[in-house]
Structures are given as structure tokens and as C-alpha cells.
Write a structure and sequence with these properties.
Blueprint lengths: L2 E8 L4 H13 L4 E6 L3 E3 L10 E10 L3 H14 L14 E7 L4 E3 L2 E3 L8 H10 L4 E3 L5 E3 H7 L6 E3 L12
Antiparallel strand pairs: 1-4, 1-5, 2-4, 3-4, 3-10, 6-7, 8-9
The protein binds ligand X6L and magnesium ion (MG) (2 copies).
Length: about 170
């Protein structure tokens, strides 16, 4: 059964709830079997920088779905959790990207796998290399490179920090 890596991000609303709910909905989907999740990271926004920090996570799954069916399902989950598309690269309640689908290089219509710019983005490569440092990323029809090798060269890693909910943030001042 094919192995896939999905990248999830959120920077509007209850970011942690949205990521957790998205992973739960993936888990409840027939033909998607979640195997592993990275740490959740808080990440500086990239692309359009005048927006709040993201939470990003990468999950590994096995799937009986084709890449096209998996894309439809991830878009359905984005929409069910209130995804709207306003500013390009702007704030979003939930984004789910197919990063890798086995070692396939897929360029058909709106489906590009590996995700075209994943290797330049610390918010993808830090969590991916955490759970799968040796995974091979196809760069074209011939070339491939491991996540750990890409991570070593990616810029902006200081903008990607492990995130933990702060248990004391709701305690009122005395
Ligand atoms: C120049 C021009 C350099 C554009 C970079 C980078 C554009 C990333 C889009 C870019 C450029 C993106 C997330 C995010 C976005 C996310 C964090 C994108 C799409 N999504 N920042 N920015 N996490 N931290 O999930 O990835 S918009
Ligand atoms: Mg994205
Ligand atoms: Mg996306």
C-alpha cells in the first residue's frame, strides 16, 4: 500500500484544535491509515509575512487512495474545517498538502507531487526530517535526495520551533 506524507498548517482560530481535528478526519477516512505524526512546530510565516505564526505538522500515512482521490479528500477536509481562500499565501484555518506519495513524481493537472517547493521550506523539512530523515525525495524523473540532506541546506530553520500548549496561559494574574 502506498506511503504518503502530508503537511498540515493553520494560522487562524484554534490552530491546535484544527490540526488535531484534521488528523482525526484523515484517520476516520476509509483507505487512509495514519502511522506517525511529527512534533507540532510554531513557524514564522513565509511568502506573505504580515500574518500570524503558523502551527505546522507532518503526518505519515498508508493509503489505498490514488493521489487524485487523496487530494480530493484533503480538500474536502480543508473545506469542512472552514478553509476560505482570500489573500494568496495569506492566513488560513487549515491547509493540507500532499508532500510525497511513495517515491512517485506526479505532474498531472493541479496535482504536483512532491509538493513543488517543499525542499525550500523549513516549516515542511524540519518536521519531515524529524520523522523520516532517510526518506528519498524525487527532484525530477531521475534525481532524488534524502530529507536530512535537504534539511542541512534549508534556510530559516530558526523560524521553526517545537510548540507546546502553555498550560499556565489561562491562569489569571493574582
Ligand atoms: C519568495 C516568494 C519566497 C514566495 C517564498 C513561500 C510562497 C512559501 C508561498 C515564497 C513562498 C509559500 C505556510 C506559510 C504559507 C505554512 C508557514 C507557502 C504558501 N503556508 N508559512 N506560508 N507555514 N510558516 O504552512 O508555503 S503560504
Ligand atoms: Mg501549504
Ligand atoms: Mg495547500
Amino acid at each position: 500500500m502506498p506511503t504518503v506524507f502530508l503537511g498540515l498548517g493553520s494560522n487562524i482560530g484554534d490552530r491546535h484544535m484544527l490540526l488535531a481535528e484534521a488528523v482525526r478526519m484523515l484517520h476516520l477516512t476509509t483507505g487512509i491509515h495514519i502511522q506517525q505524526s511529527s512534533t507540532i512546530y510554531e513557524t514564522d510565516p513565509v511568502g506573505y509575512v504580515e500574518q500570524d505564526p503558523f502551527l505546522n505538522v507532518v503526518v505519515k500515512a498508508q493509503t489505498e487512495l490514488s493521489a487524485a482521490d487523496l487530494l480530493r479528500r484533503t480538500q474536502e477536509i480543508e473545506n469542512e474545517l472552514g478553509r476560505t481562500r482570500d489573500i494568496r499565501w495569506g492566513p488560513r484555518t487549515l491547509d493540507i498538502d500532499i508532500l510525497l506519495y511513495d517515491h512517485l513524481y506526479i505532474q498531472e493537472g493541479n496535482l504536483l507531487v512532491p509538493h513543488p517547493r517543499m525542499c525550500e521550506r523549513a516549516f515542511v523539512m524540519v518536521p519531515l526530517a524529524e520523522i523520516a530523515p532517510d526518506i528519498l525525495i524525487p527532484l525530477g524523473k531521475e534525481e532524488q535526495v534524502t530529507a536530512a540532506e535537504v534539511l542541512a541546506h534549508v534556510e530559516g530553520k530558526e523560524g521553526v520551533q517545537p510548540w507546546k500548549p502553555l498550560p499556565w496561559e489561562n491562569i489569571p494574574d493574582t
